[in-house]
Design brief:
Its EC number is 2.7.1.6. The chain is an alpha+beta fold and 408 residues long. The protein is built from 12 helices and 13 strands. It binds adenosine-5'-diphosphate and magnesium ion. Magnesium ion (MG) binds next to helix 3.
Length: 408
């Protein structure tokens, strides 16, 4: 059997040293103003609910994206990334606009653009990036990048938004605009909220209804895995996932169409006990069977997320497994966003004793999670690796995910 590949997180010192060294290599003339970093996230439950004004329950990963940044007197942005070796990315902030900005630098320059749009005075900058967040694995390397840049620009321009949760919520808005409007990826707001607003030892219960205050939109739920004798295992399947392709947008459009037919502002307004009536209403419309399944996923997933958070609050973490499994089944069969590799992780992990397992993130590849007794981590890891070997699949990557610190 192939031995399992562990994707370790870096210490803060190691991450900072890496970007300082890279900064010195790329920009031979001086030091950065500082180093900032932001975590990737993994969602415990509440998938494809954020854009339906629903609930999600992410935790911040110990894996982070590091940025060394120095502000400039003009409006030029120059960037380099260890994940895009040998290439520098350059623009003028005045040229950044929806549809005009290509490449990975759009995630960075987009944040500066969005902060300017929000009325802040943001100038140009030189920055380098390095990251131990797996790329394109459904663990939000894109949000980690945006949020690291957001706290960096916040600091060098003295905006003081990162100083409190309400300010962080406005940085979330800027990062979401950067990703949606400049990078062109139509994602909801969960990833950026997780990266900026999570806290160590907690899960973040996010209520994505528009117009809520910062206080109303997020609640930190103590999530002490160690005390419960549990480990959150993340498996990066390394199956290609591309959110910028049409699938994600199609799911969003289906939800909007269903809400319109049902006469509600969002699917959040459909209560679980009104689901049957709603499904009946959808039956007659074109593509009604597909809309029914999409709506059933969203409504039941929001209910599961709420139940999961209640169990955790009541100190019953070990009881959440069935909710995770039901979430996976719903995403696989009703929302149709799973993939063979994700199903395989879930099956193998449960077979080896995991309490619960599910795909996480947008789907079509990316990562799956398993909630595992600390003593069973080796057995579950070995079982997943063996299942991938038997299926002739590329070796997955394994991460441990204790709930970690937000962007700083
Ligand atoms: P995910 O967020 O799940 O990792 P996405 O497709 O949303 O996947 O985002 C991945 C994209 O974000 C990359 O293709 C790249 O454009 C950008 N990105 C993320 N991290 C970095 C990095 N460290 N350096 C350069 N680009 C990055
Ligand atoms: Mg992303």
């Amino acid at each position: 059997m192939t031995s399992p590949q562990w994707l370790d997180s870096w210490s803060a010192d190691d991450g900072a040293a890496r970007v300082r060294t890279l900064f010195a290599e790329v920009f031979a003339d001086g030091e950065p103003d500082g180093v900032w970093s932001a975590p990737g996230r993994v969602n415990l439950i509440g998938e494809h609910t954020d854009y339906n004004a629903g609930l999600a329950l992410p935790v911040a990963l110990p894996h982070r994206t590091y940025v060394a940044l120095r502000s400039r007197a003009d409006d030029v942005v120059r960037l380099a990334s260890a994940q895009a070796p040998g290439e520098t990315w350059q623009t003028r902030l005045a040229d950044v606009a929806p549809g005009e900005t290509q490449g990975w630098g759009a995630y960075v320059a987009g944040v500066a653009w969005a902060l300017r749009e929000a009325g802040h005075e943001i100038g140009g900058f030189d920055a380098v990036v390095d990251s131990c967040v797996p790329f394109g694995a459904g663990l939000s390397s894109s949000a980690a990048l945006e949020c690291a840049v957001a706290v960096a620009l916040d600091a060098v321009h003295g905006l003081r938004l990162a100083a409190d949760d309400a300010g962080r919520a406005s940085l979330v808005t800027a990062c979401v605009r950067a990703e949606n409007e400049i990078a062109g990826a139509p994602t909801g707001g969960m990833d950026q909220a997780a990266s900026l607003r999570c806290s160590a030892g907690h899960a973040l219960l996010l209520d994505c209804r528009p117009g809520l205050s910062a206080l109303e939109s997020a609640d930190r739920v103590p999530f002490d895995l160690t005390a419960a004798g549990l480990t959150l295992l993340v498996v990066d399947t390394r199956a290609e996932h591309a959110l910028v392709d049409g699938q994600y947008a199609q799911r969003r459009a289906a939800c909007e169409r269903a809400a319109e037919i049902l006469g509600v502002g969002s699917l959040r307004e459909v209560a679980p006990d009104e689901l049957d009536v709603a499904l009946e209403k959808l039956a007659g419309s074109p593509g009604g069977d597909v809309l029914q399944r999409r709506v059933r996923h969203v409504v039941t997933e929001i209910a599961r997320t709420s139940e999961f958070a209640e169990l955790v609050r009541a100190g019953r973490i070990t009881a959440v497994g069935p909710l995770m499994n039901a979430s996976h089944t719903s995403l696989r069969d009703d929302y149709e966003v799973s993939a063979r590799e994700l199903d395989l992780v879930v099956e193998a992990a449960l077979g080896a004793g995991a309490l619960g397992a599910r795909m996480t993130g947008g789907g079509f590849g990316g990562s799956a999670i398993a909630l595992v007794r600390a003593d069973d981590v080796d057995a579950v890891t070995t079982a997943v690796q063996a299942a991938f070997d038997d299926a002739g699949l590329v070796a997955p990557g394994f991460l441990l995910a204790p709930p970690s610190d937000p962007a700083a």
